[in-house]
Amino acid sequence: MTESSHLPVTILTGFLGSGKTTLINYLLNHNQNEKILIIENEFGAVNVDSGLLKKNANIEIVEMTNGCICCNVQGELTQALHQLHQKRLNGTVQFDRLIIETTGLADPAPIVQTFFIDDFIRETIQLDAVITLVDCEHILKQLDEHRVASLQLGFADRIILTKTDRIDEEQKQTALDRINKINNKAKIFVATKGQIPKHQWLDIHSFDLDDELEVSKGFFVINSKKPLTSDFKPINSNYAKQSWNDDICSYVFEAGELDLKKIGAFTEQLIEQYGNDMLRYKGVLAIKDQPQRLIVQGVHKVVGFDYGSIWEKPNERISRMVIISRKLPFEELKQAFLETIAEE
Length: 344
Ligand SMILES: Nc1nc2c(ncn2[C@@H]2O[C@H](COP(=O)(O)OP(=O)(O)OP(=O)(O)O)[C@@H](O)[C@H]2O)c(=O)[nH]1
Description:
Blueprint: E1 7-14, H1 20-29, E2 36-41, H2 49-52, E3 59-64, H3 73-89, E4 97-101, H4 108-117, H5 119-124, E5 125-135, H6 139-145, H7 147-154, E6 158-162, H8 169-182, E7 187-190, E8 220-221, E9 248-255, H9 260-274, E10 278-285, E11 292-299, E12 302-310, E13 319-326, H10 330-338
Parallel strand pairs: 1-4, 1-5, 2-3, 2-4, 5-6, 6-7, 8-9
Antiparallel strand pairs: 9-13, 10-11, 10-13, 11-12
Residues 14, 16-22, 49, 104, 162-163, 165-166, 192-193 line the site of guanosine-5'-triphosphate (GTP).
């Protein structure tokens, strides 16, 4: 089966009331070209959301009300995906993409892992991205009171801010500062009442080993011991004055050229020891004497490596790795990372 025939799947998460159903309704009203299948999971015995989703010829809804999707996901979701694939093949159900709308109380980890653990799912389905909606009006309180809110942010490839129409600029900035500290890898968009073009959250190929790694100004920045290049400016922390105490945050490692063997050993050890705490990570690394970028990308202990595009200019050769994780022993890891810098 070719890559292009893989069924694209988007995981849509976000705390209770963050606007997931509203976003899907907007998509369905502005997307006549393809048929979308939605797996919905509602916490509790009665699925309320499917009643809220507007009836539309391009939509098929599968409800999972047998408890929370994340609690028994590897059983129920895996089984549902197998069955849907079969039905798609034999034409009983026709759809071009799948969106999994999780309950607002779901930890995305087991849902995401389902796509890597099961061989059949890996070969037939392409996890496109984890999209997290954030109710800007209530996010600070949700983060203070519900750990799952920071997990949902930590897993995100894209973050969509909702209800920005209900807050002022200062509140929005405060919410952004806190979101950025937790996840400075995800691109952030705004959708008022679900209004957002679909290309901003669908078909973004976040789990591909591509070269793109954008880091917004974050907290934990390592600067190489040796000068990198004359025009390289390390990322400065804008948020040092903030004192959020979320247990998930973003760490950024930066250096010049690395030694392949040493960075390999570092990464292996890091994943072995801290993989369970690391929600998402991605590195685009410059390896000494290697013209191509080395891409590392992972979820917990599932990791992929590949060589990407060629570094065009010598002064671009900066290694950068972002890890979104529960608290890591940063100083210790910083030293270990710096020791992987290639000898002159
Ligand atoms: N003012 C405002 N209201 C919004 C916006 N987005 C969603 N809402 C409203 O927020 C409420 C909750 O939205 P839903 O789309 O049901 O949220 P959900 O994430 O599906 O909720 P759960 O199923 O409980 O997790 C609804 O009344 C929406 O109309 C927005 O951008 N601005």
